[in-house]
Design a protein that fits this description.
By secondary structure, this protein is an all-alpha fold. About 60% of the residues lie in helices and about 0% in strands. Helix 4 (about 95-100) crosses helix 7. The protein starts with about 35 loop residues before the first helix and ends with a helix.
Length: about 400
Amino acid sequence: MKNNDDNRYLSSFACYSSESRGRMYTDEPLILGRSEFQRDRDRIIHSEAFRRLKDKTQVFIYHDGDHYRSRLTHTIEVSQIARSIAKALKINEDLAETIALAHDLGHPPLGHRGEDVLKKLMIKCGGFNHNEQSIRVVTLLEKKYPNFNGLNLTFETLEGLIKHNGPFLHNREIPYTIDQINKIYPLDLNTYPSLEGQVANISDDIAYLTHDFDDGLREGLFTINDICKIKIIDEILNKLKKEFINIKIDILIHQFIRHLISYFINDVVSNSLAVINVNNFKNVNQIRCFENKIIKLSPTAYSNMEEIRNFLFKNMYNNDILINKLQNSCLMIEKLFFLFHKDINLLPEQWKNLKGRLSETKQSRVITDYIAGMTDGYLKREYKRYFE
């Protein structure tokens, strides 16, 4: 076991904060016995972008009801799952949690429909992707420190965010923001992220592909009988009904989701440990240079997850009523974008230092950064201010 300041036993192939590759800018010394990754986590939690997640759509527009997931509650669920998997694998829980907490900071209002609108509006100006936008938030847009923009996170946290979907292999296009950072702060873009980064990634899938059943059932988009067509769900529900006779439907739903999360977590842990044990990894660099990702489901569990994903896309994410409601709201994004393009001086005071004589591409990026940071409620208020 290595000496470390992470206050727990860690496997040799985990990320140790005492061995972090550091930060982009010189920073203040650590205090209060915190580790580098704990400081990253605290900076993310105290950021404005993190607080705004509470009023950003996950699937249902946030003001539709008190119990639907918002982008913030989704993020918290991802971080909880990430910590559970990391603890079981004896890797750095703090780092896995930190990456999970930051992974959606760049999401615009109105969920993926809002992202689709910004992507269309920016098609000739560098595009838009919420993963890249999360990087912009933590390296540029958060302004809390006198000596640098962003949160000055560690290499390991940035790596987990930047490689959220794996390394940039086989001519995979490198987004502009990430390419610019890589020029001044090498990010090893052609390698896999640490196990902690891989854990945060799969925890995102586990979280939304389980908790969205709860929201979909609550909204009446499908019924218990509908989801029983999915084999793994039918098995879990039948087991629960046999164990708890006459169980109330709301408790049954909660227990089913709980057991489904546990099923995927247990499978990820056992399947990943098998890969780890066979390859006898000694350090995190061997993880990064491995030929494939290590944190993944078994073939059976992966097939079950894909069946769930297909069901939710068909019955929830592509539901006509839901899409139309979001699409009508998304018109607000489009109208505000063109309004600010026509008169960029309408942007708030704190954005004036980003203006001046800008090219069309840079002006579009400033406007997009501003709109992407909006909550659903603020988007609606700004729209009413100018158009109603």
